């Protein structure tokens, strides 16, 4: 992997800008007051949404490369803004807000997971980008052994099975996100004082817990998939683990 690619995909920066900073802004800066950091619920929401949106646009302008995960994230940010506008359009209670927000939260992992299936036959399958790639596996040696033993269909079947498992982790994340949104927003009462501050804090909580809901199952399933791939490839190719994996 080149230095440029590594810089583009820096996960720490993505987490800070897309999750941590918006959460801090929504939870800590939403109060009304005279202090400079007391932005109020409206401006705190604007800043929290604008931060990852501006970062995503800057990333695209600088690298001129569409990042699928950033694009889906930016779509989720815009949906959050639209839901907030709907909720804040007047101070009357809005029915089914928890479900509307929950569906929005569930859509993001479902889209991401579906992309693993959609790109399966493309020149750059996402499964090969994130799990089965030449930074971990000695793919040239593996595919040479598969071809020599005429096991291409079994090899492709193993990859497809693991792709489905990874898609399943995103489906689980979607269900968890739906449940989280319903849990946090179900008791929101717009007729109470400072309910917009409360709403911002809830959105911040959903953001941080939603990240865990996506990342947690994905990491667990990714570990299991690596185990499946190594065991499956050992049986198909006759190569041992040290031969399948590139030296670290």
From TrEMBL:
Keywords: Membrane, Transmembrane, Transmembrane helix. The chain crosses the membrane at residues 12-30, 42-61, 68-87, 99-118, 164-185, 205-227. The keyword Membrane applies. This is MFS transporter.
């Amino acid at each position: 992997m080149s230095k440029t690619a590594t810089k583009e995909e820096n996960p720490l920066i993505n987490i800070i800008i897309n999750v941590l900073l918006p959460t801090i802004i929504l939870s800590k800066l939403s109060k009304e007051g005279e202090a400079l950091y007391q932005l109020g619920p409206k401006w705190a929401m604007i800043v929290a949404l604008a931060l990852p949106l501006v970062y995503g646009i800057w990333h695209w302008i600088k690298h001129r490369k569409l990042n699928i995960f950033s694009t889906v994230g930016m779509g989720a940010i815009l949906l959050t803004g639209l839901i907030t506008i709907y909720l804040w359009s007047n101070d009357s209670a809005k029915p089914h807000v928890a479900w509307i927000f929950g569906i929005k939260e569930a859509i993001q992992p479902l889209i991401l997971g579906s992309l693993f299936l959609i790109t399966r036959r493309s020149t750059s399958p996402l499964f090969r980008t994130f799990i089965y790639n030449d930074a971990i596996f000695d793919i040239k040696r593996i595919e040479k052994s598969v071809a020599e033993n005429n096991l291409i269909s079994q090899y492709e079947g193993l990859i497809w099975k693991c792709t489905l498992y990874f898609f399943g982790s995103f489906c689980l994340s979607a269900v968890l996100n739906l449940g989280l949104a319903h849990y946090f927003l179900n008791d929101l009462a717009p007729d109470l004082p400072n309910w917009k501050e409360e709403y911002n804090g809830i959105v911040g909580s959903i953001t941080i817990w939603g990240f865990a809901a996506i990342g947690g199952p994905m990491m667990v399933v990714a570990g299991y998939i690596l185990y499946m791939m190594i065991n499956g490839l050992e049986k198909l190719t006759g190569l041992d683990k040290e031969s399948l994996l590139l030296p670290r």
